[in-house]
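As a warm-up, study this chain.
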Amino acid sequence: MKAKVYLVIVLFSLISCNTQNPIEESLITGSDEHWVYYNSNTTHFTYFKFNKDKLSHRFKRNEKGQLYEYYDEGDVDKRPEKWSASKDSILTWSGIKYDIVSYSNSNFILTFPLTKEPFAGYVYLVKQKDNEITKGSDAIEQKRLKHLKDINR
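Now compare it with the structure written out below.
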């Protein structure tokens, strides 16, 4: 009887350690989707895929609108970056800690500290399908606002 109890405890421990928290589950992209990354200081979009292996991959679009993995920007090497999300709403991504203000399966709002006013910067991640072309920041902003009702938090 004791062996069965220990077995159940060990199995429960293994299962609970391997499950991801809801934030991580929402952040992971499917094979045919990506996150559009933007903030108020950017005039262009960057696209990211977050994988179960806790690596994010950066993408750009070519002239035909197809996504391709993007590795460098002049002298800055952008390899796949590690990420993790804690249950207390902290996203650690590429060595930077972001507070997760709100999230859903289609939107994330992140904030990070700034040394000057307004003392906080915001990053928006909006999920879309790979074949969906982004027309401009207004379209992404409207898509983000449209899906506010989906917010989990």
